[in-house]
Design brief:
The chain has a domain at about 5-65 and about 455-720: Rossmann fold. It is built from 16 helices and 39 strands. Strands 32-33-35-34-36-37-38-39 form an 8-stranded mixed beta sheet, with helices on both faces. Strands 5, 6, 7, 8 and 9 form a 5-stranded antiparallel beta sheet that branches. It has a 4-stranded antiparallel beta sheet with strand order 1-2-3-4. Strand 6 and strand 7 (about 165-175) form a beta hairpin. The longest helix is centred in the C-terminal third of the chain and has 19 residues, at about 700-720. The protein starts with about 35 loop residues before the first helix and ends with a helix. The relative contact order is 0.10.
Length: about 725
């Protein structure tokens, strides 16, 4: 082993065989997140990565990325709250960020006048805490309050120390722009996973760590309570308590005038949940009525309507509604026993429902057809036309190989929507338009903001390609780069293949100044694989790679890697791949099962030890995705557990592991142990662990730029050597 790969970890024996779950884990000590010995190892590995990767190229990449992240020209996306439009902003001067607001007229200008509401940098300095913004929830005033001209003032602000998933909630006054002290009756929730949600100005739902036995095995709240202002949290009344096997319990209230409802949400596990209509929640007169839909379905309410999105087939009487469909029903009628359901969307072999957006009077369906967006507008029948059909029209926005996102400006009072378009080579634009009803033509979106071009895209192009997986499944992927490179005409080029393939999450085209500057401008090719396990083709695409079928995701990704080579775009020695989180598990399996396909691999915030994952942090919540290693499901889990698949006698490409000490979702022990295991066998390993950042990996732009420079420098060095 060269000096470059030396380390001070105890040189204990390696497992006897690659698949021996009974062997003593030689690196279990690295699961001690903040332990002195473990952190000493982390600091040594971080110093090693800085030494190996540091230099002019690293510094220039870090500078170029930081310039993008700190740019004053990026789009300040806003949320409408009353007459104000709120934005959270980070730049070079405001490292932790500003929560600020403006008016629509000012926002339309090139240089809006922003009023600072909360300065996180000043707060962090004053309190000696590395606060990371987790968002805010503003209470909608009652119709009577609005008629009286009362301002919106009650906000709940979530802040995370260092970027962890666990956070605190503090009440904030939008008029005085100050936190409401607990001594004055302000709502304050101590650090934990959970949250607060408004019932009214003096009452909230609280779901958090109430003490021993109140958190689920996944580390999320098991109880939700009703908490009255000015009373101790210990006196909050229980609304619902889940079992010790549930995943997450919470509650919320809809504040739409005339349709105020309270709902209790019980997540049994991923892809299985129950929703209850709560009456007189938290009082002796409380009643909970379960909304009678399949546990695997998602339920949403808007005014009188209930939307049901199906993950599995649902048979009612003689009718079977297909998985992936969207159904609508009158909510009160459904709760009274009616099962009059209208199919609003049904998938085809190439289409899936990417999302739905309600406005005051219309429903916008965002449909993917071979991973390309189409927008449809549905208008429900009114009280004047009961039993009538839902009228259908189109919202003609977007373009070829562009992603289009739609969001309501004010779902209670307006039919306006935000429209965001973006593509791999097309900087994002933010527009606004009014959704038109049947027989009307929607106006083209008014473009309010456009992001600048952060890299020179002339001569580049985007292509969508398809290949076949081992079982004949058609798998799409995108390729971006110089036209002569993506066509294969210019010969092999350094190529990064990125993927995820899990949790029904679709990967769509999007502009990245970082990818452009750090990779594409240098002559690299960027590819993205839409493998099974994701949501590109709806629930069936996801379910095809669950549990014992996980190997399909890895076979899909390997097929794309081979296709890039077959098209002449790259060769294995110049092909790198990267995955994060569930994608880190993908990367770990590419490393251990398909090492011959790649010249370098980046494994980010990963799951890797699938024997231990369900006992580490939030891991128990993912057993519906992967399986339970403490049962006979270990038989298939071990076949994609990289920590157990590693074979010291086998050759592996150079690998970079990255994680965060503050990641309280995916335990940093996964990356630490795998790196230590490979280092002990003399493999080419680079490791970097950010002390802050949570699961996102970075708590501010400086950390994000350093992390990005680490990634891109490692790839370029390894794939062009």
């Amino acid at each position: 082993m060269s000096a470059e790969h030396t380390q001070t970890a105890p040189r204990t024996a390696l497992p006897d065989t690659p698949l021996d779950p009974t062997a003593t884990d030689p690196f279990a000590w690295l699961e001690d997140v903040d332990g002195d010995t473990a952190l000493s190892w982390v600091r040594e590995r971080n110093a090693h990565s800085a030494q190996v990767l540091g230099g002019p190229a690293f510094t220039e990449t870090e500078r170029a990325v930081r310039e993008v992240l700190d740019s004053d020209d990026k789009i300040p996306h806003v949320s409408k709250v009353g007459e104000h439009y709120y934005n959270f902003w980070q730049d070079a001067e405001h490292e932790r960020g500003l929560w600020r607001r403006t008016t629509l007229d000012s926002y339309r200008t090139d240089d809006p006048e922003w009023e600072t509401v909360l300065d996180l940098d000043a707060l962090a300095a004053a309190e000696g805490e590395s606060w990371v913004w987790h968002g805010a929830s503003v209470l909608r005033p009652t119709p009577e309050q609005l008629a009286a001209g009362e301002p919106r003032r009650h906000a709940l602000v979530d802040l995370s120390p260092g970027g962890s998933d666990s956070d605190v909630t503090r009440e904030f006054d939008l008029v005085t722009k100050q936190f409401v002290p607990e001594s004055d009756g302000g709502f304050v929730r101590a650090q934990a996973k959970g949250g607060l949600s408004w019932i009214d100005a003096d009452t909230v739902y609280v779901y958090t760590d109430f003490g021993e036995g109140t958190m689920t095995p996944s580390g999320y709240p098991r109880q939700v309570k009703r908490w009255l202002r000015g009373t101790p949290l210990a006196e909050a009344t229980v609304v619902y308590e889940g079992t010790d096997q549930d995943m997450y319990i919470s509650a919320s209230r809809s504040h739409t005038p005339g349709f105020e409802r309270d709902l209790v949400h019980r997540a049994l596990r991923f892809y299985a949940n129950e929703t209850y209509l709560a009456t007189n929640a938290g009082t002796p007169e409380q009643t909970l009525t379960k909304i009678d839909v399949p546990d695997s379905a998602n339920v949403g309410l808007h005014r009188e309507w209930m939307m049901v999105r199906l993950r599995d087939d649902w048979t009612l009487g003689k009718v079977t509604y297909r998985a992936g469909s969207l159904l609508a029903a009158d909510f009160d009628g459904f709760m009274a026993g009616s099962r009059d359901l209208t199919v609003l969307f049904e998938p085809t072999p190439t289409t899936s429902l990417a999302g739905i957006t309600w406005t005051r009077n219309h429903l916008v369906l965002n449909v993917l057809d071979d991973v390309k967006n189409l927008l449809h507008v549905l208008t429900p029948p009114t009280a004047a036309t009961p039993g009538g059909e839902w009228a259908r029209s189109e919202l003609p926005v977007g373009g070829e190989l562009l992603t289009v996102g739609v969001g309501a400006v004010d779902v209670v009072d307006s039919d306006d929507v935000w429209v965001v378009t973006t593509g791999y080579l097309t900087p994002s634009t933010l527009g606004r338009t009014t959704v038109a009803g049947p027989g009307e033509t929607a106006a083209a979106p008014e473009v309010l903001k456009s992001a600048p071009s952060y890299f020179e895209a002339a001569g580049m192009e985007v292509r969508q390609q398809f290949t076949e997986s081992d079982d004949g499944t058609r798998v799409p992927y995108f390729v971006v780069g110089r036209a002569d490179l993506v066509s294969g005409e210019a010969g092999p080029a350094p190529t990064l293949l990125w993927g995820y393939g899990g949790f029904e999450h679709a990967i769509l085209p999007g502009y990245s100044g970082t990818v452009g500057r750090a990779w594409l401008e240098r002559g690299g090719v960027y590819a993205v694989a839409n493998i099974r396990g994701g949501g590109e083709y709806g629930p069936a695409w996801h379910q095809a790679a669950l549990k014992e079928n996980r190997h399909h995701a890895y076979e899909d990704f390997a097929a794309v890697a081979r296709d890039l080579v077959a098209r002449g775009i790259t060769v294995p020695a110049q092909l790198g791949m990267e995955g994060r989180s569930n994608g880190g598990l993908l990367a770990g399996n590419m490393l251990t099962q398909y090492p011959e396909l790649f010249g370098a691999i980046i494994v980010g915030v990963p799951l890797l030890d699938m024997k231990r994952y369900s006992h580490l942090l939030a891991g128990a919540s993912w057993m519906a995705e992967y399986g339970d290693p403490d049962t006979d499901e270990w038989e298939f889990l071990q076949r994609y557990s990289p920590y157990h698949l590693f074979d010291a006698a086998r050759d592996y490409p150079p690998v970079l592991f990255t994680t965060s000490t503050k990641d309280d979702r995916v335990h940093p022990g996964h990356a630490r142990k795998m790196a230590a295991l490979m280092l002990a066998a003399g493999k080419d390993v680079t490791y970097y662990e950010n002390i802050e950042g949570g699961h996102g990996g970075a708590a501010n732009n400086a950390q994000a730029a350093y992390m990005a420079a680490t990634h891109w420098t490692f790839l370029w060095n390894r794939l062009t050597a």
